[in-house]
Amino acid sequence: MTQTTPPILFGLETEYGIARDTDESYDVVAESIALVRAAASPGVRMRWDYGCEDPHRDMRGFRVRELRQDTDEAGYRAQDEARPLTFAEIKSDLVLSNGARFYNDHAHPEYCTPECSTLDELAAHDRAGDQLVMRCAATLAGERSGPVLLYKNNSDFRGHSYGCHENYLLPRSLPWASLVRGIEAFLVTRQVFAGAGKFGIEDEDRFLGPGFQISQRADFFTERQSVDTMQRRPLINTRDEPHADRHRWRRFHVILGDANLQPFATRLKVGTTALVLEALVAAAASRDPQSWPALEDPLGALRAISRDPAFRWEVRGSGGRPTTAIEIQRNYLETAQRWCDPSRPGTREVLADWDRVLADLAGDPAQCADRLDWVAKRSLILDFQRSESLAADDPWLRSLDLAYHHLDLASGLYFGLEQAGGIQGVPAPEAATLALTHPPQTTRALIRGACIRKFGPAVVSAQWDHVTLRGRNGLVVVSLLDLFAPSDLRRYHDAVLRAASPDELKTLLNS
Questions:
Q1: What pTM did the predictor assign?
Q2: I need a labelling partner for 384 at 20 to 30 A (CA). Which of 112, 148, 229, 502 fits?
């Protein structure tokens, strides 16, 4: 175990499903735009800097000429040109005083948490995003006839999937090939605790039939590695946008996961992934070789695990050796226990939770209903199916599936479980409320949020790696490219608090 491996920072990007139940002919893109523009939270609007984004750059060392989704993007642009709004107005990016980003991503409102260094921060900011979109929905409903319905899920049961992406910032010293080789089997098998469950089987652009599976997203992945995110989705996304000094850092963009409502599942999904990455970094930096689990057919295993009705999750490892998802996760757990620093905040708790969940899943998955979404949803809906004598292919089951993810506190089935006291690890309401306006105190989001709060009218542009302010003597660029050391964070934060103007801030940062 090394003491020098830097901590892994993480964040979530959640695309919400949006609908209206009083009008079948609504324009979902217009609804998403209107919802985002209904936000009244403190922040700066339409200042997002797209100039430094390049989704065509690939981790494998090249830049692709086009993405498979470029055709879709062109279609979106053609549709958007008919709208009485500019590109910036359609996106309606809002950079919030909590360091987060909220915007319209095609047909979905998307909330991106600020960078977090602890799972408590992440759970609070994930819940803050849910609260923000529901406040916007209430505002919009007050302006129109009928409620706006929001869902934290990943499928419309018509073969369309939308994401809950994860981001992990790690040292570029970890070779890409080592990262891919080490983490692929982990990502494929972690759905046993990170899946949100689904009463339906889909394929791209079509519904195949009824049946329960533990993952919302497993139906939609056909490649092992690719830079694409919207078509022919890969297990490992190779997009190379570090949003930091690219010579020192890389952002590992995980698109395989489901959106979780259970905070315990969110913590375990992100916490275990961060520990595996930390172990990969530590092992690569040592001269002590570490072997990693591998699957004979990762793409086949992804669907087989998700759709296994017996929950035995049997797959074949490298060389065709029979194994199970639980055994593979056990292997990763033992590796994390070997390489990760238990003194880091939350590490010991994640290792213990990981161990306990794997034991409970191996014994009786029903024991995890108070922690894991797929287990809770399946139990709830099967109870209803039995009580109403519904057939396995009754569409009502899919309606109930959707209702589990409904964000309305009064009618969402998940929130019924939570309000009944049957869910572990729910963040305190005051923590989520505070997170709506305050950034994490341990990452560069602290500086972004402080600049937005104090110098909002002077913000010319903002991105994850910079905030640009308009001063009397020109532009003042507050670079966040390499702002991760605690001492630097304190110095920058103190300067923002002391500065009376952008020009004074520049002077303080340069002194």
A1: 0.96
A2: 148
Q: Which of 49, 105, 245, 482 is catalytic?
A: 105
Give CA–CA dist 306/419, Å, rounded: 29
- Give yes or no for a contact between 395 and 379, defined as CB atoms under 8 angstroms apart: no
Exposure of 61 by Cβ count < 10 A (0-12 exposed, 13-18 middle, 19+ buried)? exposed
Residue 170 neighbours by CB under 8 Å, 6+ apart: 6, 8, 249, 250, 252, 277, 281
Per-residue model confidence (pLDDT) at position 193:
98
The single-letter DSSP state of residue 7 is P
Q: Tokens at residue 184, please? A: 């692929």
Distance CA 381, CA 397 (A): 7
A 10 A CB-CB count for 65 gives 7
φ, ψ (nearest 5 deg) of residue 303: -75, -40
Cα–Cα distance, 18 to 35 (Å, whole number): 9
* Distance from chain centroid for Cα 482: 22
Helix or strand run (H / E) with residue 298: helix 298-307
Active site residue 105: yes
Q: What is the DSSP string of 306-328?
A: HH-TTS--EEEBGGG-EEEHHHH
Q: What is the mean pLDDT of each run of 10 residues along the chain (511 residues)?
A: 67 95 79 94 93 92 85 78 89 96 94 97 97 96 88 96 96 96 98 98 96 98 94 95 96 98 98 97 89 97 98 96 98 97 91 98 98 98 98 97 97 97 95 96 97 98 98 97 95 98 98 90
Given a contact cutoff of 8 angstroms between Cβ atoms, the answer to whether 139 and 4 are in contact is: no
Give the span between the Cα atoms of 158 and 175, in whole angstroms.
39
Residue 43 main-chain phi, psi, to 5 deg:
175, -175
The pLDDT assigned to 3 comes to 43
Compute the distance between CA of residue 288 and CA of residue 290 in angstroms, rounded to an integer: 7
